[in-house]
Every structure is written in C-alpha cells, then in structure tokens.
Specification:
Number of helices: 7
Helix content: over 70%
Order of helices and strands: HHHHHHH
Largest sheet: none
Radius of gyration: 27 Å
Shape: rod-shaped
Structural class: mainly alpha
Number of strands: 0
Oligomer: single chain
Length: about 200
C-alpha cells in the first residue's frame, strides 16, 4: 500500500474526530513515513509496520475518547471510552463490559436512592410543617417537631448519598478512562513490537 492510499484510508476512518486532532495524527503518520523514507525504507514496508489504517484509527479514536473522559468524566464520555476500548479487542468485550455494566447499575441505583430519599424527606418535612400551621384532617402527626427533625435527617442523608454518588461516578469515570488508555497502550505496544520483530 502506498503512502497516499494509507493516508486516505486513515483520514477517512478518523473523520469522526475533531479537525485539529485529526490533523495532528496525520502529521505524525506523515512524519513516520518521511523518517522511514529518508532511511531507505519503502512506503509499503512502513505501512505494513503501522498495521491496517482501520486498526490504527481505532487506536487513535480510543485514545482520544480516553483523554476526553479523563478531562470530563461524563456518562457519555465514559461510555465512548468503553465502546472504543471494546473495539480494540475481544478481551475488553469479555471482561470490561460486564464489570462496567454492574458498576454503572450500582452507581445509578445509589443516585436514584439518594435523590428519592432527599425528595421524600423534604416533602415529608414540608407536610409536617404545614400540619402544625394548618391542621389537616387526613394527616395526624403525634409529635410534629420530632417528625420534622426526622424528615430533615432523611432528606440530608439522601442528599449526602446523592452528592457522594455523583462524586463517585466522576472518580469511576476517570478510572475507566485510565484503564482503557492503559489497555490501548498495551495493545498498541504489542502490535508495534510484533511489527518490529518481523
């Protein structure tokens, strides 16, 4: 495969990435071809050493997704990292997806539980306060002050669980991004090592 053919296929597979990052990657690969050419290595041998443009583009897309998830660990960015990492190998599909699914389910249940506790406690406290001011026939609260205190405690506990869950989600997102980035480096290193040996 010639340099031009390789670059066309690579650029086509990188089309989903931002223009600036795509340009940096193209310049890096062109520099690789230029350096190899100055040492007398043919374009075909250099292209073979890099591997298929599709696989190389997958590696770059996964690395970019990992960088974005490290900067801003939102659910969307973390899921993009997981999908990009799974595209890198079957090992990720077998091990990473179930773990991520379980961790995500536990995290989501904590967020929902914390939000529900905070909302229920706040609404119950408001109802207890209203029952003191305006006696409501269908609501009888024997000790309204204790009820208000208990409801505020439940709402506070729910708020703490919610805040903690959200922070935990950010930390988990950074961890998953770091794991996938390391995995990409390992896979890329093995591929480059195999190319150098042959």
């Amino acid at each position: 495969m010639t340099r031009a053919e390789y670059m066309i296929r690579l650029t086509d597979k990188l089309s989903s990435m931002p223009e600036v990052r795509r340009r940096e990657i193209v310049e890096e690969i062109l520099a690789h071809f230029n350096d190899g050419g100055s040492e007398g290595i043919s374009d075909e041998a250099l292209a073979e050493g890099l591997g298929s443009p599709e696989l190389l583009a997958k590696e770059y897309r996964a690395a970019y997704a990992s960088e974005q998830a490290s900067i801003k660990p939102s659910i969307g960015n973390v899921m993009r990292v997981v999908w990009a990492g799974m595209g890198m190998g079957m090992l990720n599909l077998i091990f990473v997806l179930p773990i991520v699914a379980i961790v995500f389910a536990v995290w989501l249940s904590l967020v929902v539980m914390g939000g529900a506790m905070a909302l229920a406690g706040a609404l119950a406290a408001i109802l207890a306060i209203i029952s003191i001011i305006i006696p409501i026939a269908f609501v009888y609260i024997a000790y309204p002050v204790i009820s208000i205190f208990a409801c505020v405690m439940i709402a506070s506990l729910g708020g703490l669980i919610l805040i903690g869950s959200l922070r935990l989600g950010g930390a988990m997102g950074k961890f998953i991004a770091r794991y996938v980035r390391t995995n990409i480096e390992i896979i890329s290193g093995k591929r480059k090592q195999n190319a150098q040996e042959s």
